[in-house]
Amino acid sequence: MNILRNKMRMYVKETENSMKNPKGIDEVTNVIEEFYKITIGHEQTVSSKFQDVRFIREVFLTEFYPTVLKIFIDTLQVEWFTSPDHKHVSEIFDKVFLDGYPVGAFTVLMRSVDNLELGFRLNKCVSLLEKFLDNSGLFQIITTACKAAPDRSLDFLWEDLISLMATLPDKTANKLQLQNSEKFYPQHYIPLLCSEVMEVLHNMHQKLRNNNDIHLEFISRVVGKVCISGHAVILWNSLVPPLEQGVREDYIWSRITERIVTGVPDRCLECTLTALLSQLTWYGLVEKFIGGSVTTKQKIKYLLCTKLVFHRHSQDILLLQNIIGYLGSSHTRKSLLRKMLRELLSVWGDSSALKHTSVEQHLYITKALFIGLGFLKESDKAEIREDFIQLLMPGIQCHIASSDHRIRKIGMALAETISAVLDPKGQQLKFEFPRDEEVEYLVSLTTPPQDPGLQSLRNGMSNVNITPVSSQKDILTESGSEEREANLQIDPDLDSDDDLVPYDMSNDKKLTKTKQPKYIRDCMEGLISVDDPEKLEVCLGATEALIRRNPDGLLEIAEEFTKILLHLSDRYSTDNFVPLRFRSLVALAVYAPEQVSKYLTTQFYERNYNLRQRMDILEVLGAAAQELSQPSESQPMEKGKPSNKITALDSENSSEGWREIVKQRIESKTRRFGRGSRKEVVATKNKFAPVAGCFFYPLMANYDRKENTFDLMGEDSLVLARLVHTLGVIIYAAINTPAVKQMADRLLEFLWVIRFHSDVSVRHAVLFAVSMVILSVPGHILLTDLQSEIMETKHWLEDVVEKDVNAESKKVAIQSLVLLENVIKQEFTKGADLT
Hints:
Radius of gyration: 40 Å
Strand content: under 5%
Low-confidence stretches: 464-498, 634-659
Mean pLDDT: 82
Oligomer: single chain
Largest sheet: none
Number of strands: 0
Structural class: mainly alpha
Shape: elongated
Distance between the termini: 83 Å
């Protein structure tokens, strides 16, 4: 055998010398043709050189075939394929790669594509690789690799081959870039690979029917490598439909599929199972794909019972339904489901976890609990009832105390559902919260999903109309009698009034005995009337219009009027009470800003106010600041703006009048790029500038003071978040005013104290206020007078992007960083222009 190996080595060396220094194209043709005959096992050629045909066929292809292919590619010349006389060379050259040993050919072509420079050789290798895929080369590779159990001494060769098969789209994309072939795209290559895998599996299925052994480890490792390379979704989109059909029909397919999925290497299991469980259409199929491996394989148990539920979150509800349904559909796995639900409820009710996890993650855990409730049997409920109720109570408390209305809503919905499911005959929990589409969707998750395959079968059966066969005479008799009855009957709808057009009553006004008030003091008297709800409604509806239409004399009564509106309650369920009261307060703050702002900011920290009234104060101050900072509606016409009004006098008295009109119209309709604005903006006075301090500074006076009914820095974080948001709105309203620099300095100092607040709503408000500071303060002031504060803020924003658990916080922090970087770039650009 050693003698034969030495002869083969000599042959390879001779081939290399001939290809590197050929005497002509004929010698090249002879060398390639001779190698091709050895490759396909041509007996005359093999016997004349090596005598032992069988040994040469088995050993030469595995050990020396790739080496010779590499020599052919390295010595490849463009002249071999350009001349029509050399057509035979091109054909035999392609056959060497396509008809030989598929593993060696694929390996050599992939490595050549990865290592060659752009040019003819690379293009030829790409073309050969395309032909290799079209000629079912992957099917031959998989079939060859699955013939026997893997040799552990050659495991590194397997790993190299599997890596090349799984990463072909990535390697070709990196190398070829814009010149990449469509056949190498993941959306084309991965389905092709899956179809070849299914062909191999069909052959193996037949072998099992014939009581022959099969080996699936290679396919498992290919599946795992493709998934961990980032193409798991495309792979299972292609594999799940045919495998699902197989496992529904045949138990042998279930065994094959289970061996493939559970045989994936441990490092690839997470991405493999995540994508698979997101593609399966029904939880009943999970057992057919992974069997009972959750109780026998520790890695799968950790993924299904811990990591994919507690440490990850997904928008796809199928993932949770499949995991929980799989655990709850068998008595051998029911204990795992009960244990997981208990841990989920413990995490759900933990106040610390609620504060330090994102809303998306918390909603994911809530969905898991809703789904799990649907898979509990009566025996399970009796066993866990007391334990779950004890865990539920602190969870309800921390959810109701949350500042996020969505958290409060889903918390109350889950609490009601758990109490109803675990103890249907006992006293039920009932809360008042909006039962919107999200709540209805969450509650619907407690119903286990049905098998869509069974549902499609039912739909198909319902579409089939089965009618008894009757004689033609009976059919004619029935149709004739029906026609006679139709002629005798009179349609009762013909005499109805449904076709009359109704009156339009949308603009009708409600008639009242109370007259509309004409003066502001009349409104004040009507608002404090206790026994006349109709008068209160009329006066509240007229208040805003009266204030804006006739603000004379308002300054003397503004504070008293504000007090009346602030303490006004909806005793009679007045229509649009909240918006009417709010707009009236805003109108007062706009037309008497100093008096109203001083009163409201003082009352904000006073005792005996509820949280709703304090929130109203902040909303009114923010809305009034925005309105005061806007330019007045009646402004002089901008200079240079052509008038669109055309008179007959202009066109008659001027010979060039029509030309000027056409020119003006063309100019008004023409869009010009790169010339900048031609409008000259007229400066207007900012009405908010003189009173900005009255709105701003008193709100930060006593924020750390704890009252009996109000703890801003403690449990009343919802009001704190609104306070910070309002301060941001006020400072933005004070843009371009002299006081904005000092206000920004004070605000950043205030924000620095609460930037790491545990409540996510406060952190959101802080990020909003920081962005308002960046937008409001001129850039040269930010980089000079406020340089140290801004740099500290920049580092904090970078920490938020890197470490904050809330996705919305990261998004706002990124936006603030972009704003700050733009300001810095603009200032440096101005400095460079000046120099």
